[in-house]
From TrEMBL:
Keywords, in A-Z order: Magnesium, Metal-binding, Transferase
Enzyme class: transferase
Binding-site positions, substrate: 37-41, 49, 53, 81-83, 85, 87, 204, 210-212
Biased composition (Gly residues): 1-10
Active site residues per record: 36, 84
Family: Belongs to the UPP synthase family.
Protein name: Isoprenyl transferase
Cofactors required: Mg(2+)
Residues annotated to bind Mg(2+): 36, 223
Provenance organism: Alicyclobacillus fodiniaquatilis
Length: 257
């Protein structure tokens, strides 16, 4: 089943000519990407949705390479949401096998680039083989000090916030702290993104203009960028253009210029 869709990925197509870009002057430290549109990409080609997810995985690999080439510190990739369990079992199973497939072919390159892998979301509810991939890729990259690639797997912003609140409440109940000692900084230490640079740029592909439960606390002051491009067609060139636009935005954070 997994090998069935080899050949449909955009990695198999003639590659686009490499464009030389001047170095980016202003860059986001942490980019979040809602990788959407795999199903529609496949439907346009009369292929099964799984072929779209396979092509999406190739696009994810290219995007990780591009972020590293552009000197981005951290990229968070929305791979599976807490709502995606509603999908047909066969699609969920395919999606749960993708991390294994991805890391089997990419882990050596990630290690050689010095990439540190992280996961966010409730990984304890993933199938055992997916959890094993999570553990192995964390172990293999734990000593790295380069770009962080944070995979959101069984992640939902609301569930992350509920979990953070319950952790704090337990500390209050145990007498280790008082309710009025809660600050924004402290609250952030309970979130899945603790220790990562602040999220400053969110990209969503496929023309949908919503966050779909992605990093809802962290995106409060992030710049948002939407494109109609379907995720498997997203390219290094488009990422470069998006970051250029990020650099042109005036970030006032409520202040005056
Ligand atoms: C994004 O593509 C991948 C996941 C949500 C896992 P979709 O599968 O949502 O593609 P569309 O939105 O149906 O085109
Ligand atoms: C968001 O895409 C989740 C991921 C990209 C993993 P969805 O396709 O699930 O979002 P909705 O259903 O259009 O909001
Ligand atoms: Mg979608």
């Amino acid at each position: 089943m997994l090998g069935l869709f080899k050949g449909f990925g955009r990695g198999q197509r003639a590659s686009a000519p490499t464009v030389e870009h001047p170095p980016l002057q202003v860059k986001p430290r942490h980019i979040g990407i809602i990788m959407d549109g795999n199903g529609r990409w496949a439907r346009k080609r009369a292929l099964p949705r799984m072929a779209g997810h396979h092509a999406g995985m190739i696009s994810m690999r290219e995007t990780i390479r591009a972020c590293d080439d552009f000197g981005i510190e951290c990229v968070t990739l929305y791979a599976f949401s807490t709502e995606n369990w509603k999908r047909p079992v066969s699609e969920v199973e395919y999606l749960m096998r993708l991390p294994e497939q991805f890391f089997r072919s990419e882990i050596d390159e990630l290690v050689s680039r010095g990439v540190r892998v992280r996961f966010m979301g409730d990984t304890s509810r993933l199938p055992p083989y997916t959890q094993e991939t999570v553990r192995n890729s964390l172990e293999r990259t734990a000593q790295n000090t380069g770009m962080t690639v944070n995979f959101a797997l069984n992640y939902g912003g609301r569930s992350e916030l509920m979990h953070a609140m319950s952790q704090f409440a337990q500390e209050v109940a145990a007498g280790r702290t008082c309710a009025d000692e809660l600050t924004e900084e402290r609250f952030e230490s309970y979130l899945d993104t603790a220790g990562l640079p602040p999220l400053d740029f969110v990209i969503r592909t496929s023309g949908e203009i919503r966050l779909s439960n992605f990093l809802i606390w962290q995106s409060a002051y992030a710049e948002l960028w939407f494109t109609d491009t379907l995720w498997p067609d997203f390219s290094k060139e488009e990422l470069y253009q998006a970051i250029l636009e990020f650099g042109r935005r005036k970030r006032r954070f409520g202040d005056v210029e």
